[in-house]
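Usage

Read records sequentially. Each one opens with the input sequence:
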Amino acid sequence: MSESRGAAAEAGVGRRTLLKGGLLGGAGALTLAGGVASGTSAGQASTTVGGAGSAGSVSGILPTGDAPSPVGHLVEPFHGAHQAGIATVPQSHAVFVALDLDEGVGVTELGRLMRVWTDDIARLASGRAPVTDQEPELAARPAGLTVTVGWGAGLFGRLGTEHLRPRWLAPLPPLPIDDLDGRFGEADLLLQIGAHSPVTLAHARRHLVGAARGIASPRWLQPGFREPMERDGWSLRNQFGQVDGTVQPDVDGVDAGLLWIDAHGQPAWEGGSSLVLRRIRMDLAGWERADRVAREHAVGRDLATGAPLTGGEVATPVDLHAVLPGGLPVVDRDAHARRAGPHAPHQRFLRRPYTYEEVAADGTVETGLLFAAYQADPLRQFLPVQRRLAEADLLNLWTTPVGSAVFALLPGCPEGGWLGQHLLA
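and closes with the structure output:
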């Protein structure tokens, strides 16, 4: 499944030569040492390497005994109208890597990088090693790997291509609850990498960042994790114990227009999306001093089940009109469930959050949430909700946004094409 080191030697070219010499130029040139991995179209189910069946999600395929894990061989299709890693069932592990273009890099060099990344990602996602991979064994288990590529607002200014920048692509306006750390701010490029195996993820991250050497340099790296037993029916919970991501649009059906950019006014971005990544520090010590009633009052939900305080199940809509006998609302006017909910049909977006942990400057362990929100237009969909949360949200007593970045996620590409081709060719 993986290729030997000899394949790269026979090719007679190194990665630096490929990038700087333009040997991957042209839409039909993605055929180094065997070509781009043969993928399935967007909308087809995930498959497993060496397996006959398909799995639209990873539900119900946990191994028993000493049998090899089917999750390790799970393949998420790379080619299609949309990039994988957006509407894909979230993997257990993810890392968000931001890079800035090096001085003097222009459209030509960026195009070469996009071609190389496209070829490498297609191979890695299918369980095959990139051409220059020195550890091809680490690519043999794709484990549901997806790599999603995004561009930041600054990239267009650097390249002199402002006319290609989506009208909404810009940093979020200042918000009163923010205490932003510049280490986790805007950048030119984004690699969002997800996998069910941290080994697979780390290998892909190292290879793709290395492939950009001489073109772009890392600015920040934010790893995260989430409940691996979600595929066995367990709920995703953040470190407050709160069931997270309870309100999601039907992006495979009637709400697809909320996630994907259409051709109206932005034909070159059709099939793309946007990512708002907010790094939110959580005050666990303060949260643990609050009693159960105060916590549920702040969230507006039953912490045990995730159901609204107005009753039902986790998916039951919150009854914002329900009142107590004394006339007070059951769900506080500043409860998170009320403030974060859509006040108009278009104020909805897809959530794929991850937990992070790191040692803070004062020596304590900082825990928080990498809140990843995906939508067609963040100014119209995400920002109104974020402003309501900044104005009054009881959870603000225990949470502080410390990082914020916005990226335009490229449309997908067909076999033989490359990411960003319509924008750069």
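Summary fields computed downstream for this record:
- Confidence is low (pLDDT under 50) at residues 1-44, 50-64.
- The two ends are 32 Å apart (CA to CA).
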